[in-house]
């Protein structure tokens, strides 16, 4: 993922609601949510290049999602795939299991990333950086937050403030209205004003600055890179209440309900 909006303990029906867009090169093959593992039952998208995933859930109500950390380190191919981290974390089956897995993970083997993981009761974000042999972790407090290609609620990226403003409108609406509001947020194309102060760390030609500006839309469309898929997830204690997914940019097609993929008996036609 590249942007994950978080509604924690603010929605009247669900302790945790997440709305996320995945931005990627158009040429990188991927498929939408499917069963990735059977015990625990894990559902998420699949990156066909390195066989990992960017986001998923378990039938017990565990969520794990990853955003790449922006920067030049992403230009190299790391020995191990970040998508592997998401699958292994989900297969651990619980927040405690994720933390045991992360305790043995060496961030230097991966390109830098930010990992959001939790359930209806707890939510944490872990940061992996190549200059550290341990991951830094912190709790996500109640409220509306955004995890972009940077730290939680990063003030350095204009899209974070935009996403929080739009997501706050969904916080206390009934679920059907909240979904519509979150879908509109994920499909938002607004760009920040032009100016050299937009991303002061980015140096170079004007076209590079303009490309970085285009990346500040929540729903990105550039010639080779953009928003490829989208998801909205609601967690209740011990279960996934809703998992809605769009296999295209949220402005280009409808969301489908993939929650039944978590219920093996329902898929087999059992009571």
Key words describing this protein structure:
alpha+beta, 20% helix, single chain, 271 residues, Penicillin V Acylase, Chain A
Describe the model.
The structure is a single chain. The strands form two sheets. A seven-stranded antiparallel β-sheet has the order 3-4-5-6-7-8-9, with helices on one face. It is 20% helix and 31% strand. The protein has one domain (3-267): Penicillin V Acylase, Chain A, CATH 3.60.60.10. The two termini are 35 Å apart. Strand 7 (113-118) and strand 8 form a beta hairpin. The chain has 271 residues and is an alpha+beta fold. The model has no long low-confidence stretch (mean pLDDT 93).
What's the short story on this structure?
It contains six helices and 13 strands. The protein is α+β, with helices and mostly antiparallel strands and 271 residues long. The longest helix has 12 residues, at 175-186.
SSE string, helices as H and strands as E: EEEEEEHHEEEEHHHEEEH
Number of domains: 1
What structural category arises from helix and sheet content? alpha+beta
Specify the CATH class: Alpha Beta
Q: Order of strands side by side in the largest beta sheet?
A: 3-4-5-6-7-8-9
Tally of DSSP β-strands: 13
Low-confidence stretches: none
- Our estimate of the beta-strand percent is 25-35%
> What count of helical segments does DSSP give?
6
Terminal residue distance: 35 Å
**Oligomeric state:** single chain
Could you tell me the CATH topology label.
Answer: Penicillin V Acylase, Chain A
Mean pLDDT: 93
* Overall form: globular
What's the main sheet like? 7 strands, antiparallel
């Amino acid at each position: 993922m590249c942007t994950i909006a978080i509604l924690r303990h603010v929605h009247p029906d669900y302790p945790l609601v997440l709305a996320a867009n995945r931005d990627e090169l158009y040429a990188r093959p991927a498929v939408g949510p499917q069963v990735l593992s059977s015990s625990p039952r894990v559902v998420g998208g699949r990156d066909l290049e390195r066989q990992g995933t960017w986001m998923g859930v378990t039938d017990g109500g565990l969520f794990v999602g990853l955003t790449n950390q922006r920067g030049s380190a992403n230009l190299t191919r790391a020995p191990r795939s970040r998508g592997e981290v998401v699958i292994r974390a989900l297969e651990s089956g619980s927040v405690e299991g994720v933390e045991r897995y992360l305790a043995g993970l060496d961030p230097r083997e991966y390109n830098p990333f930010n990992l959001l993981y939790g359930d209806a009761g707890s939510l944490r974000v872990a940061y992996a950086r190549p200059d550290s042999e341990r991951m830094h972790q912190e709790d996500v407090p109640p409220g509306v937050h955004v995890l972009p290609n940077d730290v939680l609620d990063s003030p350095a990226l204009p899209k974070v403030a935009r996403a929080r403003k739009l997501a706050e409108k969904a916080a206390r609406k009934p679920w059907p209205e909240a979904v519509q509001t979150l879908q509109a947020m994920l499909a938002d194309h607004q760009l920040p004003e032009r100016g050299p102060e937009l991303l002061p760390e980015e140096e170079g030609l004007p076209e590079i600055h303009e490309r970085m500006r285009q990346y500040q839309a929540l729903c990105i469309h550039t010639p080779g890179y953009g928003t490829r898929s989208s998801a909205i997830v609601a967690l209740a204690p011990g279960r996934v209440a809703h998992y809605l997914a769009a296999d295209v940019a949220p402005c280009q097609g409808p969301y489908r309900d993939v929650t039944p993929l978590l219920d093996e008996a329902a898929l087999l036609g059992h009571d």
